[in-house]
Specification:
By secondary structure, this protein is α+β, with helices and mostly antiparallel strands. The protein has five helices and twelve strands. It is elongated and about 55 Å long.
């Protein structure tokens, strides 16, 4: 478990800023304490400093995970967000899309969303902007990238969203995982 290098931090923050913009500072300096990002086995974990100090007693080879996995670095040093980051990114998202209940299940199974399946869209969503997809009941579902939009319209093309992230939504609490 080590802190991220400057290059890793830059790449990760650029990816996260695509979804939450200037609200990135709110992710680190929270009212309930200070949180930080740590790298372990090419995965980036979001963890409070209190838990980080407690986990210092565990050796690195025995440590499985720490905090919430935000994403991972690929072998080409690109950062990929995981679905577990959704609960932390959704409250600060700048651009949101709501999907109607009829299209929600089809979307979660990996299919595209037609224009008729879109409920609402945040104004001024630009091309290839990171969005958070919500159900009509305001439950965050996924964090894909918005595709090309039509001229003069804020509606998306017929093949609107292709799910980018894993669909398994594991709830990770702020626990320390240790191999036995």
């Amino acid at each position: 478990m080590r802190p991220l290098t400057e290059e890793e931090t830059r790449v990760m923050f650029e990816k996260i800023a695509k979804y939450i913009g200037e609200n990135l500072q709110l992710l680190v300096d929270r009212p309930d304490g200070t949180y930080c990002f740590r790298l372990h086995n090419d995965r980036v974990y979001y963890v409070s400093e209190k838990i980080l100090k407690l986990a210092a007693n565990i050796s690195g080879d025995k440590l499985v995970s720490l905090g919430t996995c935000f994403g991972k670095f690929t072998k080409t040093h690109k950062f990929r967000l995981h679905i577990t980051a959704l609960d932390y990114l959704a409250p600060y998202a700048k651009y949101k899309v709501w999907i109607k209940p009829g299209a929600e299940q089809s979307f979660l199974y990996g299919n595209h969303v037609l224009k008729s399946g879109l409920g609402r869209i945040t104004e001024n969503t630009s091309q290839y902007q990171g969005v958070v997809v919500y159900s009509m009941a305001d439950i965050p579902l996924m964090i894909p990238v918005a595709p090309v939009r039509r001229e003069g319209q804020h509606l998306f093309q017929q093949t609107s969203f292709c799910p980018v992230l894993q669909l398994r939504r594991a709830k990770h609490s702020m626990e320390v995982g240790v191999k036995i």
